[in-house]
Amino acid sequence: MYLTNYYYETKLPSGEIMLVNFLTGKVFHIQERIRKAIRNWKTTGDLSALDFLIHHQFLFTDREEEQKLIGEKAERYQAGLKEKTKLYGLCLTYDCNLRCPYCYENGIGRQGTLMSAEMIDRAIRGIGELNEKLESKSSLLVLFGGEPFMECNRKAVEYFFDAAEKFCIRERENGRKCRMVLFSNGYELAGFLPLLERYRKDIDSIMLTLNGTKEVHDKLKRPVDAGSSFDRTVNAIERLLEMEIPVNVRCDVDKTNIRFLSHTADFVMERGWQENPLFRYYISPIKWKDDGTCLSEGEILKSFLKLDGIHGGKLSAVFELGALRLVHNMVGMLDGSGEGSMAYFYCEAVKQQQYVFGTDGYIYKCLSSIGKPELAFGEYGDGVIMYGGREERWSVRNVLSIPKCRECRFAFVCGGGCALAAEQGGDLYEPKCEDVRTVVDGCLYAADKGKNIISYGFYYDENAGEH
Ligand code: SF4
Ligand code: SF4
What we know:
The chain is of the alpha/beta class. Helices cover about 40% and strands about 15% of the residues. It has 17 helices and 15 strands. It binds iron/sulfur cluster (SF4) (2 copies).
């Protein structure tokens, strides 16, 4: 007999004992005798407990049997990935009217980076070429920047919509789904609403950012030309909801603003947004700052649960946690999605699911690499050229190819961590561990307390956008 390494058991403050099988994505409330049996499986005389452990695939005949199961599941997962929606980002410009201090695009040349009509045509042609190569059945054209929706970009934005609409029509004629997702900070979006109305049928959703109440938000997202970006973003959200366009709002959090989440929830409730099925508000960690204010997923989850408890469930009534990758996987397991919530890969950049066409003629896969040609995966011009070796290395980076992850009990809820961070640390196949255990404990604790953690996933997940 062989006991899998991919399990975790813990006793919660309530006295409940939880047992998770990360290999099957199943979570069990167990009795003490099952806990004893799994700890002493070689010597226990509790035959019914052993039956339970065999039946639920904790115990195998031998390691080969366990490895065979892992291989079969990984194969199914890879086959499923092929069917997933592909994301094609088009960075219209790297320039922005807000230039938030925490933006991952800080440090790259921003001015004069607006795409010409010719570049937009090339990017859309390149997207079509990649889409054919990947045999995609469904895709999202994602417009972002910098900030695309600035008055000074109007002509380019109009050109994009015209080209994108034609692309969507062609895709549909070929039996494939295609819609647009639009990113904006909302600051100058109001001036573009008539344009959005015109292309509404092709718009899946709009992504905006609201980092808290007015005082908090305006501190983090300062407009270059003074004035409040909060008021304008709020106005944009209201108008878009009136137009019945789905709005996904991101709340970027770090140590400086997380404590204000309940105030933000109050504001949302005053407006009644949380009752509108077209509105989603998700919490996203601020990364890429080295001033000690960033928070890990585990830290965010802990604060969220604490504040939610103090404020009578207000936070969970307003926010969802789908942008926290580990939390999302764990919530899926607790919701009974089983195998569907297992993580072999960490993010969409390593899943051959996401390609971003930069204004500089390069193709990126990881959003944090945009504007840094040395981190590009290919280039586009008259056609697409992908740098085979680099793409190959990234697309096989998963918990089964990272030796240390393969041995880790949390592998299938984690996915191996950020590939970019690993690569920049000198070895793409080194794990980049986050505080998975804290996340797992936090989610189990929340489930035991009957707390409602909602995670729809992100806009690239199958059901996202189906409001
Ligand atoms: S990155 Fe770390 S926590 Fe995640 S699977 Fe690998 S070894 Fe485990
Ligand atoms: S590789 Fe890292 S930085 Fe890049 S998209 Fe994935 S998680 Fe984000």
